[in-house]
Amino acid sequence: MSPTLLLSKEVPTLSYATTRDRFDEGWRQPLSTLLGLGRAAGADFVEFFLERGNYISCLAEDDAITSISPRLSTGAGVRVFVTTHDCYVSTNNLSFTGLKDALEKALSILGLTMPSPNSYVPEINLELFRDYASVRGKESWLPNTSSMQEMGDVLLGANSLMEKKADHVQSRRAAYFRDWQEVLVAASDGTFARDIRLTQSVGYNLLCADGEHRSSIGKRLGSTGDPAFLRTWDYAETADEVAESAGKMLYADYVESGTYPIIMANQFGGVIFHEACGHLLETTQIERKTTPFMDKKGKKIAHESLTAWDEGLSPNEFGTIDMDDEGMPAQRTLLIENGILKNFLSDRAGSMRTGHPRTGSGRRQSYAFSAASRMRNTYIAPGDYSIEDLFNSVDKGIYCKKMGGGSVGPTGEFNFGVDEAYLIENGKLTKPLKGATLIGEAKEIMNKISMCSNDLGLAAGFCGSVSGSIYVTVGQPHLKVDSITVGGR
Amino acid sequence: MPTVQDISSQAEASARSLGIKKYDIYGSTVDENSVQVDHGEPKQVKASNRSSIIVRVWNDDNTIGVTSTTDVDDQGIELALKTAYEASAFGPKENVPDFSPEAQASLQSQVFEKRPHAPVSTLIETLVDVERRLMDAHPAIAGVPYNGLSQRDIDKFYLNSDGALRHEANAYTSIYLYSKTEQDGKKPRSAGAYKVEHSLANLDIEGCLSEAAEKTISHLNYEKVKTGKYLVVFSAEAFLSLMGAFSNLFNAQSILDNRSLSTPESIGQQIASPLLSVFDDALHPDNVAIETFDGEGTPTRRIPLITKGILTSFVHSAGTAKRMNTQPTGNANIGAKVSVSPNFFYVTQGEASDQALNIGTAENTIFIDNLSALHAGVNALQGSFSLPFDGWLMNKGKKVSVDSAVIAGDIREVMKSIIHVEKEAEITPGGISPRVWVDNLSVTGE
Predict the structure, then answer these.
(1) Which end of chain A has fewer surrounding CB within 10 Å, N or C?
(2) What is the ipTM of this complex?
(3) What are phi and psi of B423, to 5 degrees?
């Protein structure tokens, strides 16, 4: 620490021996100085987010590796608050001067100027270094992941197997990515924390064609924190599932439009809750007044059979984090209990602006985005019914076995594509259906989820929103929606 | 950010020291700022100055490796070249990309006068004023939850070890306004508008405001439509969205990968009504995001895709053009696997229509203003779509907003079922198109 208080005019003369190759204790001094500079300029709160990334993707098409694509990145973002107004500036330049320039820009946008030359710059007393990267062998994660050679070998093996398992194959793709990220957060409230994340995903996309009949089915698995993820992938199991689905959907009829009871499968079926409800429980939506639930905390917003969680703690799940992108340790947040809204998901800005407490949910794609309230592993809790109970309750309806993507609009209306669906007649699956889209309104649908089975399953997903694309888990048990509009032909 | 010449010199020096003889680099720098407001107050202000490059390296066995990085200083460029060289050992052995034969061909000159960004305070004041006026446009408009005003300068370059060196700059300013209504006993409704221009001075802010207000008010009174088959009119934006979602029809790389609705033999086939013609026209003067060269340095150009309903050309990279024995078209995106995408659709009348159709007198016709959730509701490999939309039921001049409906179909049937392409085209940020009338499409309502 400096023996005397620093004068503003001395800041340009400072020299720090930080390394951009590692975020460690050595960053304390320069970041403390910069945070102090921001506070001396009149900012109420200042936060730095530093990031290094090492990403690689590999694609096998049919029997050849057609792409191996590494991506390296470094960058930082500085967020400055004056009351509840904020400004975010990002840069690739991690030098002290580069970070100071970014800070100065953020301050000036908010109408603040750097302290006069003879002003004292109070250094911010940062907490003891909270180094989440030092646990669970994270420092060795990157070198222990699959080499380029191994990526190619696994994906070609997977594609070769798919050729044997599927009929009418037009194209086979197996794709993998590994996203390694080191982050450092330092803020004027004393936050000083580092983490290393390792996220990986692998999956198939199969296109089958027979004359005018076509089906395309994908399946993706995801993991955090497991360097051996790719080399232990049981691609035979995934190939079986994908080949079977593509075969069944190849000659499927288009679904007839109408209103039906539906049964949604577990795992990725949870996307309906993610889109229709989860996003509406983010404080970002309260700030915009675009959620019908903003004044419903403590009130019934869903069927009494429904309980739901969002958490960052489940080992190795795709949305698991040790700390969020604002340096807060991950938590387990009860969203809905027996139909009653219990909590919202809140980041720092959301907490400032809405009063809802932070939940360790401040997340972002990269330094190019300021953090926002986002989901992590989000799922509907299992219920007491068996899957047979659910099917036996449906005379004519649709079984949505594999969901596609979806979205929710500013008025709470949502839609989801269904990649694999079947007609249910008298509790039995009678024929495959394609082209279905589920359409509804969040407030209404939540009260129509009347039965949850006891087979909770989770699935990896990607969520795009205000702070970019992030890794999340969606999940649910098999559940029944009493009625929903299904778009088709 | 180093200059293009700095990067070129550094790349040359690093390549030499690493023993790399053949490489190319595509890169960009973006300088931008943006504001959002909420009920008269600035909500979030963002600024950034970021750069990135993508490096391709060929090894002595002529296999290729690629790396992208945001580190564009000496160390970063050297590390990127080194990593790409390592990756080249695992690059594809067949159909290895090469430099574009047109990477040093002359370009259509493009000169934009870059103006200094307006101060952020001006952006905030402008947006606060627009937000207030939009909320004043109707008592039901309770807020403008999605809004933004941003300025962006972008510089792009391409260079290769054969001496190609290209650079271009562009500047955009854009505004979007999406308002939301609240009325007792009624569902909230939402609508909006988006405009983009080269500078704030030229940005059609008033047009954006009036379009957002007009559309929002037009959705206040809504009704469910009955599920059934309808005559449907696609707005320019809606039709261009569909064209974009199914652009694998024209994509040579998708065709070579067996992931397209077309095959190499599809050229010359009637795939749409003779009333329709479609171009990819990167250099169209109304394309604000004009780019004169693609990721491989190939000059962009106007490509006829559909001429009077007949599939005429595909869009190509250097590699797909070589494999299909034709010329590259300036549609490549550099990467470990070079991808191909259209630049700017220009949809126009093919054969003259003999139908005198008019939206003002149409009966029981659905007018689709915009399609939503294309990422979820389009199956581009199967040709099918099932999409929510904003629009109106038109009946002899009476216009009623449609509540919560979905349109579904197959793109190949849609293109063949076009019964009218209007004369007057609308310029949108993503392309140019007139309204397109399609018969007998499925709409799910109630």
Answers:
(1) N
(2) 0.87
(3) -75, -45
